[in-house]
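job 3f2a | input accepted
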Amino acid sequence: MSRLLEGRAVVITGAGRGLGEAYAKAVADQGAHVVVNDIDAAGAERVAASLPSAVPDTSDISTWVGAQSVINRCTETFGRIDGLVNNAGIVRVSPPAEASPEDLRAVVDVNLLGTAYCGVLAMRAMIARGGGAIVNVTSGAQLGMAAVAGYAATKGAITALTYSWAAAYGETGVRVNAVSPDAVTPLAQTLASEFPEVQAGAHSPESNAPAVVYLLSDLAQEVNGRVIMTGGTRLALMHPPRIGKSIKTADPWTPAAVAELFRDTKTAAHDGI
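job 3f2a | predicted structure (273 res):
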């Protein structure tokens, strides 16, 4: 029986440890050639050396030049790029009102712009080849997590990118989906030990990897623009945001009428409507 990703070339960012390492190993086990990207050279080299067909890469994906470098590393080494896992990310912890501009900029640069840069450049190469699969890594923090508000915002933006890219390029053979993992990682454990209010994750990184393999493979050839929540024995699909029931009036809205709407909504919720 052939492996799901036999002969395909996949870039995985932030793959020097934790979830990225688990994704790299799972993808390689299914026959893929892997570019193991991480700014931690020792981690990238260690993981790449443990795989049957892989190269390490230390490009800084938070810059356009760095993102182009890692995509080029894949096409030049393996002659193609079939998959991209946008896993690289950082966290900065603070009450929202105490966030520094430096921390906010760093989180946006790595998490959001790194994902966007690598995705755009990978899409260009994939469209030229007639197809490919991108898996973005988002987080349940996008639903709101006070101690890591900047991180949460970038993850919400990554989910929006996923929906937008999928809508734009679904007819080209390029599929874009995302995973929202729950895992115990070195970073999460360090943060949780210093900041108890930050959730450390509850499951092994490896338990999150099968969904990534699935989304990169032909098993998911009809799946586009979806977000899968993973971790342990849990698997769930996240519904795209949608507008609730619309209420219209014969007269223009006034602040007092809006207030009445909220009172009615609260009453309805209490009545179980």
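job 3f2a | Helices lie at 18-29, 41-49, 64-78, 101-129, 149-169, 186-194, 209-216, 255-270.
job 3f2a | closed
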